[in-house]
Amino acid sequence: MKKIENYINGNIVKGNSLRYIPVENPSTGEIISEAILSDSKDFEKTVNSSLKAFENWSQVTPLKRSRIISKYKDLIEKDLENLAKLVSLEHGKTLDDAKGSVTRGLEVVEFACGIPHLLKGEFSQNVGTNIDSWSIRQPLGITAGITPFNFPAMVPMWMYPISIACGNSFILKPSEKNPSCSLRLAELFSEAGLPDGVFNVLNGNKDTVNMILSDKRIQSISFVGSTPVAKYIYETSAKNGKRVQALGGAKNHLVVMPDANLEQAVDGIMGAAYGSAGERCMAVSVAVAVGEIADKMIDSIGNKAESLKVAPWTDSSAQMGPVISKEHKQKIENYIDLGLQEGAKLILDGRDLKIQGYENGYFVGPTLFDEVTRDMKIYKEEIFGPVLSVVRAKNYDEALKLVNEHEFGNGTSIYTSDGEISRHFTTNCKIGMVGVNVPIPVPMAFHSFGGWKQSLFGDHSMHGIEGVRFFTKLKTVTSRWPNSIEKGPEFKMPTN
Prior knowledge:
The chain is α/β, with parallel strands linked by helices. It has helices at 40-57, 62-78, 80-91, 95-112, 115-118, 154-165, 180-191, 206-214, 227-239, 262-274, 294-306, 326-342, 377-380, 396-405, 419-428, 464-470; strands spanning 3-4, 6-8, 11-13, 20-25, 30-36, 123-128, 131-139, 142-146, 169-173, 199-201, 218-224, 243-247, 252-256, 284-290, 345-348, 367-370, 387-393, 408-409, 411-415, 433-436, 452-453, 456-457, 472-479.
């Protein structure tokens, strides 16, 4: 059985731990490898490597860092097909979807190439008589990222390229369910010329996470996952003096107004609800149908969803693959059971789906509920699967209230032809990322990704300029040279 080890100091390193966890192919249910569950000795080796590397890397000029990152970008582009296959094999998402996710991560690498400009400070001459002041941003030290199973390439690349570009070293703890892509990304960075130890990959489970959270040598934590875990990460890290960006769960609403282009709205909903088997923090899991458009919208979604091609990633015609594990498949199907018990109307049932030749795979078909109400658990809770709930709203005000009163505030969209409604929605919705006639409003790399309310813990969103600020400390210098200093001590606050 293939063993997946750690990447430390520029090499794949066999760990000290004798504990391993199975890594499965979700399309077949087969165990294809085993990932190491790192112990305290593995952790200590990783931290020491990161600490030593930081001392030198932090002194490398931003321009030289940028050149290495630019080479890294080229290598990722050349290896994109292979990276996507690693994602699809261990996650199950279609190959096209996997390629798209790697590309969105690559865009953050491209953004990081501009780090010489992004790190420029501000300068003010004569803030007082013959006194100048300027600001600089300096690296933190060792930084760490804890990433989820649903985007084993993209989400890590939201974090480490910017951190490393800013002069930090970075420890990545990928999901134990699909760690192979992270190791390959680390190998490519070394090939690009990144000094050993600047980027380390430490595999493990909750025990490994707790070691990262409690070690005071690690200055920051970046996390993407469920809200309960995000909250735990935030609270534990803060107690240990770390800065934190912890992105939690979501229940993203897509509002369809009566004047919307229905065909466009439904097409948007299809990809946003069922793409990647709904295993996206930006997936649309609630469609809010406003007024008389509801019946037509539900009929259209049902017809299109019923014809979706669900198949393993090796099938080039596949539109949706399996979910990540047997346990997660059962969890999703339990939610479908619960929706029926709560009184929702099941339009399309994705339970007990079997794919010929892949009967042991973890497939859940597209599922559609109508007449969902705000008191139901299938409305309140994050399902993280291909389950779409339709809520009917009498008017725009009622729809906006639904969006704003939900505990999650990750993303939302509205489909409408009314510019005034659009402007009101974007201004007044209490959500971090908003789309207008766009189903999944994920910002480009030069903007920042992050929600509100129970979807984000910490002050900074990911990538873009927010990422640069998160991975650096601000220092402000005030300077005056001796020949300009008046004689005698000063005992009052200077004012000019």
